[in-house]
Amino acid sequence: MFFRFGAAIVLIVLICLIGIAIEKRNLDLRRELSRQHAQSEELLEAHARLRLKTQQLGATSRLMGEFSEPAQDDSGTEHIRLENASELPLLRWRAFSPGQTASQSSASPPVVQ
């Protein structure tokens, strides 16, 4: 009878220890998951900051400002200079209605605005 009682106690203790080990592993995984989530948010914010910086550095006005200043070593070459360097030249735009397809609009002559 003592043997059965001892075996039952050992079995209960083993089940409790296994449950504690599982809970500990579960908490470790949750901690790791929350750390990865925080790191992911930080990386997304850094990506957004870098994308904004890239757009600011690649802005048309900034790039056109760099190109509008002639280089010093222009010896013997012709350069085309716009009368209004701050404004971009107008492009040819075609009238395009929402019900019209691209192939139908190509038949009509271009409209310059």
Description:
Helix content is 63%, strand content 0%. The N and C termini lie far apart (103 Å). The chain has a domain of 54 residues. The protein contains three helices and no strands. It is rod-shaped. The protein is mainly alpha-helical.
Number of beta-strand segments:
0
Helix content: 55-70%
- Overall, the morphology is rod-shaped
Cα radius of gyration in angstroms = 36 Å
H/E series, N to C?
HHH
Helix count, per DSSP? 3
Characterize the largest beta sheet: strand count, sense, and whether it forms a barrel.
none
| Structure class | mainly alpha
Oligomeric state as shown: single chain
Which labels suit this protein?
113 residues, mainly alpha, 3 helices, 0% strand, rod-shaped
Short description:
The chain is an all-alpha fold and 113 residues long. The protein has helices at 2-57, 60-68, 102-107.
Please outline the helices and strands.
Elements: H1 2-57, H2 60-68, H3 102-107
